[in-house]
């Protein structure tokens, strides 16, 4: 029997934001391996299964164990919160498997399926409005596996490129200066009043949402269960919602829906000599 590894992202919390496929994939698994906090979140789905709870730093052990069990013909789930491919277990799993000689789709012993999930950035955005309606990027501030100068370069580029920025792993007890450094890099290109959302434990019991501004970003409680969204130069707050415009007001009058003079539907924006919409 060919074994299987299922890389499952179960969404931000559990239950209603778990996809149908993720639920079925967990049901299909004989063995479930995950970080103990995540196992707790999906406990009610695990009746009768062999469960391996691992600590945060045992990620590679989890992968080797999953591969060994799958080669013995078992169906093994590696669970991550959010999406398994976004700072999750999909990457290290495929890296270790490649290292151990796994042959991909043609491998006679082990099949691998990556099950997509709702990642933190989507969950957090939904709680504050529509902050991601234009180009955005995610940056993890964790320098446990990535050199700080690399992170710094990416923050600088995102700031300069006017991307909405989602900061994953923003701060922990031992990583306490990176967030202020990031704020300063962003302030080089963005107004101090740029809207910022700080969301802890989205769709979990201790959910907490704060809307603030870039200059005050570090004056709030931020931990490892927090994701921070920093707006771009057009992001604003109205009716308590964080909005990043898609660009409709460049072309249309929002109230009447009429085209602005000089603009054409389904055509590139017409710009003046300074590069601004006419
Ligand atoms: N695979 C996960 C990300 C893992 S990295 C995903 O796709 O969402 C861990 C980081 O994700 C945390 O430090 C935090 O920044 C973010 N995160 C995960 N779940 C979250 C939640 N429910 N609310 C807010 N942030 C969350």
Structure description:
This protein has helices at 20-28, 36-41, 59-71, 90-99, 120-128, 148-160, 178-187, 248-251; strands at residues 3-9, 31-35, 50-54, 75-80, 110-115, 129-130, 136-140, 164-168, 195-200, 208-213, 226-230, 236-238, 241-243. The longest helix has 13 residues, at 59-71. The chain is an alpha/beta fold and 278 residues long. Strands 3-2-4-1-5 form a 5-stranded parallel beta sheet, sandwiched between helices. Helix 3 (59-71) crosses helix 4 and helix 6 runs parallel beside helix 7. It contains 8 helices and 13 strands. The model has no long low-confidence stretch (mean pLDDT 96). A hairpin with a 7-residue loop joins strand 9 (195-200) and strand 10. The protein is elongated. 27% of the residues lie in helices and 23% in strands. The protein folds into 2 domains: 3-118, 3-Layer(aba) Sandwich (Cobalt-precorrin-4 Transmethylase, domain 1), CATH 3.40.1010; 121-243, Tetrapyrrole methylase, C-terminal domain (Methyltransferase, Cobalt-precorrin-4 Transmethylase, Domain 2), CATH 3.30.950.10. The structure holds S-adenosyl-L-homocysteine (SAH). S-adenosyl-L-homocysteine is lined by residues 9, 12-13, 80-83, 86-88, 119-120, 123-124, 168-169, 199, 201-204, 224-227.
């Amino acid at each position: 029997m060919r074994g299987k590894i299922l890389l499952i992202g179960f969404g931000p919390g559990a239950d209603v934001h778990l996809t149908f496929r993720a639920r079925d994939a967990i049901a299909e698994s004989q063995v479930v391996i995950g970080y103990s906090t995540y196992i707790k979140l999906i406990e009610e789905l695990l009746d009768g299964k062999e469960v391996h709870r691992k600590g945060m730093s045992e990620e590679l052990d989890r992968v080797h164990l999953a591969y060994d069990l799958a080669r013995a013909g078992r169906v093994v789930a590696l669970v991550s919160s959010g999406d398994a491919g976004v700072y999750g277990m999909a990457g290290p799993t495929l890296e270790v498997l490649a290292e151990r000689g796994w042959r991909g789709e043609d491998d006679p012993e082990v099949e691998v399926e990556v099950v997509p999930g709702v990642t933190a950035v989507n969950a957090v955005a939904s709680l504050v409005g529509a902050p991601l309606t234009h180009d955005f990027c995610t940056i993890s501030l964790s320098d446990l596996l990535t050199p700080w100068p690399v992170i710094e370069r990416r923050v600088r580029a995102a700031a300069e490129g006017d991307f909405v920025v989602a900061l994953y792993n923003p701060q922990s007890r031992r990583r306490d200066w990176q967030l202020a450094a990031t704020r300063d890099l962003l302030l080089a290109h963005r107004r101090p009043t740029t809207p910022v959302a700080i969301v802890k434990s989205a769709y979990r019991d201790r959910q907490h949402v704060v809307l603030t501004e870039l200059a005050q970003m570090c004056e709030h409680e931020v931990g490892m269960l927090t994701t921070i969204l920093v707006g771009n130069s057009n992001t604003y707050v109205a009716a308590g919602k964080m909005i990043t415009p898609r660009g409709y007001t460049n072309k249309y009058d929002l109230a009447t829906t009429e085209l602005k003079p000089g603009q054409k539907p389904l055509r590139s924006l017409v710009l003046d000599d300074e590069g601004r919409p006419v």
